[in-house]
Design a protein that fits this description.
extended
Length: 190
């Protein structure tokens, strides 16, 4: 009987220890979050970049553009703000400016598969099909996962019911149209 009592007491001590340890971890993570978020520079691109990301996500592209440009002025070497600016210009339908912005981003970071994919999407939309094909192809070769499109979880988070056309599918479609059109109509694809 004493053995059962000692075991029960030991189990209670273990559970109490685990509980206090868990509470301690929660407290430590809260302190860490406050420490990291309370500094003057909360993100490498500054507060303007952080605001721009939220505004872009909310579909407030004009405001996002303003904050991306502020971030670029304050942190000229921060490539993520420049990428955000390019994507935002594309969302606003300012295609020529967006193309120039993507070209600048890719000059600075030629290893960005996502930027090649985004520039390809923009060129596709602008009717620059041969350039779009080249960028889609390069992006997919650099990162094959880009060709697969959005996974089910991302579509769920973005509330997308249907699976959109993948880059690989679009690339195949453009290449097929290019073959069907023949050499005389290479730049005029649907």
């Amino acid at each position: 009987m004493r053995l059962d009592c000692a075991f029960a007491m030991n189990t209670d001590m273990i559970y109490r220890g685990i509980r206090y340890f868990g509470i301690g971890l929660i407290f430590a993570s809260l302190v860490w979050a406050l420490y990291k978020g309370a500094g003057p520079k909360t993100h490498p691109g500054g507060p303007a970049f952080s605001r721009a990301v939220g505004l872009y996500t909310d579909g407030k592209y004009e405001d996002a553009l303003r904050d991306y440009e502020t971030s670029i002025r304050e942190y000229p070497g921060f490539i993520h703000a420049q990428r955000g600016r390019a994507r935002t210009l594309m969302q606003l339908g300012r295609d020529r400016e967006a193309l120039e912005a993507f070209n600048e981003v890719l000059e600075r970071d030629p290893g960005s598969a996502v930027s090649f994919a985004n520039r390809g999407i923009l060129q596709d939309r602008m009717g620059l099909y041969p350039q779009a094909i080249a960028d889609y192809d390069r992006a997919i070769k650099m990162d094959p996962r880009l060709g697969e499109g959005l996974d089910w979880f991302t579509r769920l988070l973005q509330n997308r019911n249907e699976k959109p056309q993948t880059l690989t599918d679009r690339l195949k479609s453009l290449r097929q149209h290019q073959r069907d059109a023949g050499p005389s109509v290479r730049g005029v694809l649907p």
